[in-house]
């Protein structure tokens, strides 16, 4: 029971750290509840899939019993993250969010693993993006210790489904609202007793391409279903050093952007109202997740 030992030891340290807040940002308790929102989503995702698919289902889909076993370990990690964050919030006197109901949309083992890859990648980007807002060093270390594990889950799942396990030398940070925009697409409803978090979802943006493998120079079609965007917009690919802006050409039913050089792996593109900043004030839709083949060094 190594996870229990870790939880107890870490909780003892964390419970002595009172949640604090930057003048203009979310409080640490808000950030922990935001992290818990994502961990509930992942925990439910794996728990439901493992209740649905057997090791034989994995083998029929072309994966082996080792893959099944690793997915069980990932499921266990996510469950432990949920209990860890729930405990940390309670210890700090805050109300932890409870599990919601979700619709993940997978229909077989292969699409489950494809969704797992996206969720793990978003988890990495979420913890990375939130790091700068965490005030308490204790929470920052705790969040960092979850981030590194999510990154290992991500590279394992990516390798298993023949995506580059680490496509770039840097991961992409996402803001709280960018992550929530992606997470909300899986959430059907949440208990009304859950504390409200300072998050908002941007309009949903969906990416598609006629290229089988999307790479540098590929044209990607971005659509906002049921939502019309007027006026000039730009595409912004999110990177750790800031957005890479590209022209977004209005085409029938959406906007077309070209994948710029130097982006690979699980990538995110938003539509923005200007080509100098991609912030809560300028994002008009997205992010959309775009899987870009190859590695940043080969693109
Ligand atoms: C997978 O199956 C092989 C062959 O039956 C077995 O030797 C191995 O221990 C199994 N691994 C796991 C993780 O169950
Ligand atoms: C983007 O659009 C502007 C204005 O239409 C044009 O001058 C520029 O060449 C375009 N850039 C690219 C990379 O296509």
TrEMBL record:
Keyword Signal: yes
Keyword terms: Signal
Signal peptide, first to last residue: 1-17
Pfam families, sorted: Ferritin_2
CDD domains per UniProt: Ferritin_like
Gene3D superfamilies reported for this sequence: 1.20.1260.10
Top-level taxon of origin: Eukaryota
PANTHER family associated with the record: DESICCATION-LIKE PROTEIN, OS05G0151100 PROTEIN
Descriptive protein name: Uncharacterized protein
Lineage, top ranks: Eukaryota, Fungi, Dikarya, Ascomycota, Pezizomycotina
